[in-house]
Amino acid sequence: MNNIYALGFFILTCSAFAEAQSLSSSEADSLMMKSIYDFSLTESKSYDWLDYLSNNIGGRLSGSIQAERAVKYTEKELKKFTMRTELQSVMVPKWSRGTPEFAYMQLNDLSTINVNVCALGGSIPTRQAGIKAPVIEVTSLKQLSDLGRKEIEGKIVFYNRPMDPTKIQTFEAYGGCVNQRYSGAEEAAKYGAVAVIVRSMNLRLDDYPHTGSMSYGDLPIENYIPAAAISTNDAEKLHTFLAIDRNLEFYLKQDCTSWGDVESYNVIGEIKGSKYPDEIILVGGHLDSWDLGDGSHDDGAGVVQSMQVLHTMKSLNYIPLRTIRVVLFMNEENGLKGAREYARRAELKNENHIFALESDAGGFSPRGFSFDANDDQMKVVNSWKILFKPYLIHYFEKGGSGADVGPLGKGGTVLAGLRPDSQRYFDFHHAANDTFDAVNKRELELGAATMTSLIYLFDQYGIVNKRIN
Predict the structure, then answer these.
(1) Cβ distance 330 to 67 under 8 Å?
(2) S-S: 351 plus which of 149, 282, 346, 394, CB 3.0-4.6 Å?
(3) Among all residues, which ones are annotated catalytic?
């Protein structure tokens, strides 16, 4: 934007604030939100920040050098427009993928078909020569107990339960099958399986395997088995060939390593409240990502949108009544250590968080919010829906917020999650195609403006424990 246009925008914004003083609260709120959206769609820095995170730093696995660089970069940027920044130390697990995974199906005529796989986060490696074994296909954890050790021992378990395409809320479809990824190895190992292959959490058919966290639960370490995801296209192929040849064998080689816990940081920046500085409004996303892509949707988008909330307020000369704090959490993907450490320290310091908003559902067009709130709080929140209607934001639902803000849900704190359109989210989630080019600039900016508007309203009206200040 050239200097003349910028000056004109500033004058118009100042005039809008002056006019707002003589308006009703609803009219003033509407005028403020118009200023927020106008600024976000013309002057936002969120897309440039995401460009740097994605293309200059890349995937940001907890404990990696890329995660360390992301901490330094976002802290440097936050210092430009916040009153205080902090790097909050937290110990996080470090796991690395190693050399690229390799897998194939071997048919009864000894011919082979290569397939696309990736190790699940936290998995052990195969032995150096890889593993080759017969395959048994299941669609649930319960089916393992039905089959028993006799049918499973010495085999590779293939979990092939697809996401349910009839679920309009795609996170419901994800929740309906993600247990096979998270607990599949733990359960299969109890029956003597030598490895597990899990159908990727993806609604479309493509060649991208999707990683994600998994757990061995309480298994002794000597009973751990390798776990990998297979692309949806190759899951369909494996299913088809198994129907023809039950003696089919599967070969898997992966070279991942767990290194133990290392030090990392939550990145914090804030603007102090002018009237109620001890009442904290938090907005955030998670700075870590998986390593296959560059984590642009998950969760680079949420990081830069959260930063943009404070940048917009500062740029519009908005002086918040309450302290507005951005927190970029570390280790959401494979441990949630950053969120838990932040909540632990907040409790020790007796901090009063009245509202916490998270963006961790991709940089797509915003549709609204989901809230963890009581009925009285929801009545107030729902009264604001009319303000969002001009921006096509209609989804205000009770129930659900976000993993990183979840530990703060005590003592009447309202929690919320931004809800963008989710139909394409799982095309990219935890996969190599979660890259900067998959994010639309305007959609990203609309999400940031929507978050800023909600933060503004909570700052103005401050819902705390069933009352409105």
Answers:
(1) yes
(2) 346
(3) 332
